[in-house]
Protein: flavonoid 3',5'-hydroxylase
Amino acid sequence: MAIDTTLCYELAAAALFFIAIQFLFGRILRKWSTAPLPPGPIGWPLIGALHHLGAMPHVTLARMAKKYGPIMYLKMGTCDMVVASTPDAARAFLKTHDLNFSNRPLSAGSIHLAYNAQDMVHAPYGPKWKLLRKLGSLNLLGGKALEDWAPIRAAELDHLVKAMNELSHRCELVVVPDMLSYVMANMIGQVILSRRVFETKGSESNEFKDMVVELMTTAGYFNIGDFIPCIAWLDLQGIERGMKKLHKKFDVLISKMIEEHKVSAHERKGKPDFLDVLMDSQENGDESLTMTNIKALLLNLFTAGTDTSSSAIEWGLAEMLKNPSILKKAHAEMDRVIGRNRRLEESDIRKLPYLQAICKETFRKHPSTPLNLPRVSSEPCEVNGYYIPKNTRLTVNIWAIGRDPDVWENPLEFIPERFLSEKNAKIDPRGTDFELIPFGAGRRICAGTRMGNLLVEYILGTLVHSFDWKLPDGVELNMDEIFGLALQKAVALSAFVTPRLSLNMNA
Structure:
């Protein structure tokens, strides 16, 4: 039976009228409560402020915060969203009201990429999420686990240094993100699967890197269907189609890893790896994992575990190539502390304050995650004198906090020395100091915070200590960004390297 066209128009007009009334009067009615909503742009009926965001939402939101303040309210389609853009605002949400904002909103990314939110990143706050975090911390991401797999990190860095040395001998460029994705995937693969994921760097590892970048970019998009659910089925931006296609590719890869792992079980008798621990947790009574949980967790580890750290290292190297005096100071510190007769070791890092300052300054200016993964309020609350409705999405603009002129002097300049001053020397990027929260903070802080911080310091330090770096003649360094869950360089960093250490150290 055909539906009358006039009726369709009337229904559409009625729906738009209802949404407009709800949008306009809902905001007014909330102001009659004891506290007002935070200030923010009025927006348009139906779409709200969605049209404001553009291709660089972190930049747009930072600019808007200068007008509306550190806590800003936006109507995004039919959803409420609040943005925190200063350390004090972030502290209010992620510390004072952390429990109320401990869940994540359901989104196309969590549904189509993260196995319907069955992973550690998107799972609802509760027993299953706590089990995933506990297993990850005890066996992979926590302090003791990181100590246990230190030899694996050292061995994989050996492979990386040798590969770069070969490129140097052939006078070939090092494409930094490709090399980093390769080494980090193998580090994680050794711990999770007891094997290197890629035996040689080539088309397979490059395809994996491209898949990871695509996932982190796509998952960062502001998808219209997430904010206007009634039109989600239209997939106006084509985002969900891309997510479904990419998910199939990752699912094939992860399923293959799991099947190959089962076949080699006899080789690991008495020496279980992380996947063995996860598989055993399928039979843990009330707190058990499904195979979907396991796949989703592996996806978390192989994507966020490789991309966020590699992007930070790439930005750090790029800033040093842009500021050769910084690279020279880093070399001088390392030569003084380590010398040139051996490679940098993890135990050296604590004796290298300038290297640590470079890493902190990289996290400040180029945070791996410019906007934290959104959270959502379970109940209405009052934050710093403002009323926050139930089901309000929270976004913390980590990028804006790192460039806040009220917090940082000359925030657009890359100045590692700022972290050597008495004022900033004790600032820790692992979630306790809200001036620098590249991994987030609170209950939903990135589970891999310890690992990410260590990998950036160790790998960046090794690359700087082991090699001199030089851009190709006539090439101007491009420092433009591409927005996503991870902040990518628009143009991959490529450079020539020359070994600095004794030949047998870099061989």
